[in-house]
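queue> pop job 88
queue> type: inverse folding (structure -> sequence)
queue> payload:
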């Protein structure tokens, strides 16, 4: 596919992106915090080219120079939002540290297979210039800037604001939102300029994240249950939509890829629900619950009912399918969203996870399964943890999945995951009728790393992916 010589990074339209060459590399954040291994986190490069002699192998590791960062999400310096600017290149990865608030800029343009550290933005610069901390998600903007969401302030209190980086120098420019406009909680966000809107989600209070998750903290108001609507041009918060109990801890949010669409979806982890959000005829925004994962009644667990804990969602480039992961129940689901108000389940695969047969948890009532699923054993390895981050190829045919959520919660809910390491899987997608199947020829076993088992979290595909690119 010939590249436009006068265009910038990415693709002209989402449908053009679906015709892109197949991805050959994936970059994965790898974490040692809370594992007992006294090593820095690192970025791994995974070969996903089926024609390559190193297919399904880690071919490079880039350790960070600091300890205990808790690398979390990563993203690009430029994407399809800069398509009209030929001076821009998708050649830097921005790695965010959830605990230290440090930002690493990684050069993947010089040698895609062997990334190198380009720059470090120290926490003190983030604190002083934006009064934000605990960095989570990022998107590149059409202006060439990089925008990063925060979970808190430098004191560990909840604060949903946004840090702006210069897209060339990666200097901190300050907070994006107007003074006094930050949301009570922060987590993820997505913007849709044609409707002059951005919508952000809510996690919880950062100082709580250093310890175990306490269920009573949710109804006590220490975690969020709303999404926040922002005026994209004025940088002000204009509406808060309370999702109620089914919307506790709304995490990942996605507009439809069509840049003219005025709707999208948000996955709520503790509430085990997916809400559709949409623009009304009056011009404001509203929500409706469109997917509900029923809790399983259990014995041998922390509570008498186990939520699915939806932790990641992604939408295919043609806006036809939505995928979600249930980290505790252990399944990945594919929904046909041709009718956005009535998603239809068309694919599902199980990894066992929290309700695997032979484990400590006994399911006493289940509206979804007749019996507990078998543990997933792939290439002789028993997969620990549940499906967490998911990332979809541009053509929608390959869904990649890692099993680590956040090291403190991994240690609490899946202690064997911390001991034996995370995994990355590839799930084949039927893009015609719908359907999912685990590729048995692909496995990245992060339990066999040179410095010991580690926790693998977020992923970015070398040429772009369905969670990165936004069109303006």
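queue> result:
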């Amino acid at each position: 596919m010939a590249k436009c010589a006068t265009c910038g990074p990415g693709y002209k339209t989402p449908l053009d992106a679906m015709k892109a060459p197949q991805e050959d590399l994936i970059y994965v954040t790898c974490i040692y915090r809370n594992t007992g291994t006294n090593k820095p986190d690192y970025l791994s490069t995974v070969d996903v080219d089926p024609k390559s002699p190193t297919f399904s192998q880690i071919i490079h590791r880039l350790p960070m120079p600091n300890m205990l960062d808790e690398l979390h999400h990563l993203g690009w310096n430029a994407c399809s939002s800069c398509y009209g600017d030929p001076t821009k290149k998708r050649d830097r990865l921005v790695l965010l540290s959830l605990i230290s608030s440090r930002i690493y800029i990684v050069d993947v343009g010089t040698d895609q297979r062997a990334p190198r550290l380009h720059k470090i933005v120290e926490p003190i610069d983030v604190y002083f210039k934006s009064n934000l901390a605990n960095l989570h998600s990022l998107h590149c903007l059409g202006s060439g800037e990089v925008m990063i969401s925060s979970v808190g302030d430098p004191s560990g209190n909840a604060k949903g604001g946004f840090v702006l980086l210069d897209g060339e120098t990666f200097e901190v420019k300050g907070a994006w939102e107007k003074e006094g406009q930050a949301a009570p909680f922060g987590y993820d966000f997505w913007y849709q300029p044609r409707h002059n809107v951005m919508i952000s989600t809510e996690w919880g209070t950062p100082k709580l994240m250093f310890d175990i998750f306490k269920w009573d903290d949710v109804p006590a108001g220490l975690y969020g249950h709303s999404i926040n609507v922002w005026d994209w041009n004025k940088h002000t918060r204009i509406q808060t939509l309370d999702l109620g109990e089914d919307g506790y801890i709304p995490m990942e949010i996605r507009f439809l890829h069509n840049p003219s669409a005025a709707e999208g979806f948000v996955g709520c982890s503790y509430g085990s629900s997916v809400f559709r959000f949409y623009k009304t005829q009056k011009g404001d925004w509203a929500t409706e619950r469109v997917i509900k994962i029923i809790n399983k009644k259990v014995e041998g667990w922390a509570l008498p009912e186990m939520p699915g804990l939806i932790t990641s969602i992604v939408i295919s480039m043609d806006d036809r399918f939505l995928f979600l992961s249930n980290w505790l129940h252990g399944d990945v689901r594919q929904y046909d969203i041709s009718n956005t108000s009535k998603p239809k389940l068309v694919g599902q695969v199980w990894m066992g996870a929290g309700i695997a047969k032979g484990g400590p948890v006994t399911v006493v009532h289940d509206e979804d399964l007749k019996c507990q699923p078998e543990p997933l054993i792939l290439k002789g390895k028993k997969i620990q943890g549940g499906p967490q981050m998911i990332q979809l190829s541009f053509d929608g045919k390959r869904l990649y999945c890692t099993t680590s959520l956040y090291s403190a919660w991994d240690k609490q809910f899946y202690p064997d995951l911390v001991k034996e390491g995370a995994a990355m899987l590839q799930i084949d997608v039927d893009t015609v009728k719908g359907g999912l199947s685990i590729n048995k020829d692909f496995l990245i076993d992060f339990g066999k790393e040179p410095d010991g088992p580690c926790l693998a979290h977020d992923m970015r595909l070398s040429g772009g992916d369905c969670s990165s690119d936004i069109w303006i």
